[in-house]
């Protein structure tokens, strides 16, 4: 990685990045205290970041931001839980100043784990009276029953997101309560399993690839001694900032902020309708600063060959790749119809099959064509039904197409992954199968009608049917992609094979 692997070295890197972000926020702040772009909680987290770095140096910016926060009128989009948490993080802020900003507004209280845990942390920060302790205890029980499943902190009931798992773990890790700490530590073990030494900590579920989850994952990995994994995540953050000249909202497709960032701009993949650049910028700087203040803990080794299988999350690893799938959820962006595959190890690892789920119920770049499931000739995409883990090396996906049921079987071996799609033979005309999306960076080369290769990687993609490669409406969280399709057939098997010349 980029610097010697010591706690002190990572602390210095965190401080440097936090200072860069803090100064960028100064440049983005307008005279009235608002930022150039609209934000939900960016001003509050910017105040927490500026105060933590040097209150005297940034006192003008803090005062302007607090004045702007006081002007805001709470409405149905008001992020009270986030704003209150950030204000509690400002050392020495008077309670009267907080009340002037929050204006007795109510918590939003959505059925979402991270908002609920933010409420819990805010309650803990207010006072330690008997009633407050009882309320916190009852709230903790509710959170644990509703959102904790073994080592998974759910996003919403029945739905997992690696990003919000990491955020929840980071919040709980700051609690003085032993139960909260125990949950955070267990959740961090899963994060270490997910990101291995390649540093991609949040590739599954809502918010895949975003800096929001990466900084939280880094924080808990560093806090609990997973230094190899923490260093790998920090490297990805640094590399993205170098490429984008800012902390980008999406680490997988880092780019400078365009004049009109958002879900309709193809230069900003991974953005959804509620994303705000200044929110994520200030949030990222805050957690990097918090990481810089951590005390060193005895280093732990990142799990190397520890697959995770449950009814919700499947992960597996080999010497050549790491793969993961979400097997259940409420929306198509909560599941993984085709595996997310990271090829290689360490800083040289490449995302071969990127996350494809965007929040289709929010404005985004994602359309039905981006769902990696079979489709009819008129463009109707199959509907995901179920996915089950049949062994530590096999996942079976069931889908529905034109009123019939089809199946996708994915087998994971040490040197190859096999994806077999099959549909009802009576379907006419025959559908297009596979339709999996490989990152455009992979630069697929045509070897024959049934075979593709990726130069200099030793990866071959072979099919028992002729395959077509196209980029029509092919967009993933990592940006433009190449779609691999087996057209007009009722059964096809694609094999992704790693040859010995792959550089690990």
Largest sheet: 8 strands, antiparallel
- How is the CATH topology of the largest domain named? Glycosyltransferase
Mean pLDDT: 93
Radius of gyration: 23 Å
End-to-end separation in angstroms reads 14 Å
The CATH architecture of the largest domain can be given as: Alpha/alpha barrel
Q: What is the C-level CATH assignment of the largest domain?
A: Mainly Alpha
- General shape: globular
Question: Strand sequence of the main sheet, in spatial order?
Answer: 8-9-10-11-19-15-14-13
Structural class determined from secondary elements: alpha+beta
Strand content: 15-25%
Q: How many domains comprise the coordinates? A: 2
> How many runs of DSSP E, i.e. beta strands?
19
Helical residue percent? 25-40%
Regions with little confidence, pLDDT below 50 for 5+ residues: none
| Helical segment count | 12
Strand-helix topology:
Blueprint: H1 7-28, H2 42-54, H3 59-71, H4 80-88, H5 95-102, H6 113-126, H7 130-147, E1 148-149, E2 152-153, H8 162-173, H9 178-195, H10 211-223, H11 227-244, H12 277-292, E3 308-309, E4 313-317, E5 321-326, E6 340-343, E7 350-353, E8 383-391, E9 394-401, E10 404-412, E11 416-422, E12 433-439, E13 444-448, E14 451-454, E15 459-463, E16 468-470, E17 475-476, E18 479-486, E19 491-498
Antiparallel strand pairs: 1-2, 3-4, 4-5, 5-6, 6-7, 8-9, 9-10, 10-11, 11-19, 12-18, 13-14, 14-15, 15-19, 16-18, 17-18
Helix pairs in contact: 1-2, 1-11, 1-12, 2-3, 2-4, 2-12, 4-6, 6-7, 6-8, 8-9, 8-10, 10-11, 10-12
